[in-house]
Amino acid sequence: METRRIPGTVIAKRTTRVYSLHGIILQVTSDTSLPEQVLDAIFHYFGWYGPLLEPSPEVDIELVVVHTHQEVPSLHTTCPIVEYNGVVFQRGLQALSVTWEDTRLYVDVPAQKIWAYLPPDKWADVSQLTIEHLISLMHGVLVLVRKLGFFPLHAAAVAQGEDAVLFCGPKGSGKTTMAYALVQQGMRFLSDDSILLEPEDTTVYVRPLRRYFAFTTEDMQKLERVRAAFQIGARSKWYVDVSMLYEGQEAERAIPVVLIFPEIVQRERSRLLPLSSEEAMQRLIGQAGLLSLPPDLATKHLHVLSQLVRQVDAYSLEAGQDVYGHPDVLESFIEPLLSTSTKHKCHDSGQIHTRQSGRMYRA
Predict the structure, then answer these.
(1) What are phi and psi of 116, to 5 degrees?
(2) How far apart are CA 205 and CA 111, in angstroms?
(3) Cα end-to-end distance, the chain, whole Å
(4) How much is the pTM?
(5) pLDDT at 221
């Protein structure tokens, strides 16, 4: 532990913690006003392992938590501002700023470094962490993760063998429900709500990011196999460790072959409809957070999404009442897609459709 003089204050003690994710090493330096358990909770939530017992000789991303907001560099740009859940993002050519109330972050992309001011009155209590805390801090980290070859996507993922099914869509579209239903049926769990796409040569792989299922209190009351759960924050979301529910059903890497955009509908029976590559690409872009990225990283991310679209068969799932509480019904939709994915076939309550140029044809 070292000490550092902060202008206008007493000497503050500094502590360093190191985390890892898929070979990426993240070093966090902070003062003692930010409890270590808060950092651990945030990074564990997004799949990082640590803190590592021994420091790493090589650091890929550096996060420095400073004592005052004046120590965070300013971003001077005319680029438009993007806002999400009260968190404000503004990008430059090689940098990004994130603001949420008194919280300030500055992301220097070439240096792979983040400066962050996290007000102790909002960040010191792990039980009061909210989605705004997670978004404001982790967005900067995930910007730099892209530079290292991993591209985040708002999706859940499960695997069967080496093949993966992705459920992509906005909040409340049913991603968690769909993924959990297939895990109940024996598929392996990769990630809920947030995944990482990893391009390698001509193939795009999926890696886990958030390694827990997030359930509402209402969901939790319906789950019979929940053995252990913990809650981050005060907003009625429970984060459930899948390894405690289905031991040995976790996966670390798979190849996406089926991409599904779910939507909850108020009718009894569900429908699975093919999507063209153009339709799938448009929907993916909306779940990739591209507007808040510096231009070069946005371009790379778009290229990876284009690779993914060429690799998968894409569908829209209008999820009705039949798939809720009946995991076998959802499996009956998904299983044929995995076994005949290159034939572009799907079914809707016993009726077969095929895909040609993104249009529906009755067989």
Answers:
(1) -140, 135
(2) 27
(3) 69
(4) 0.86
(5) 65
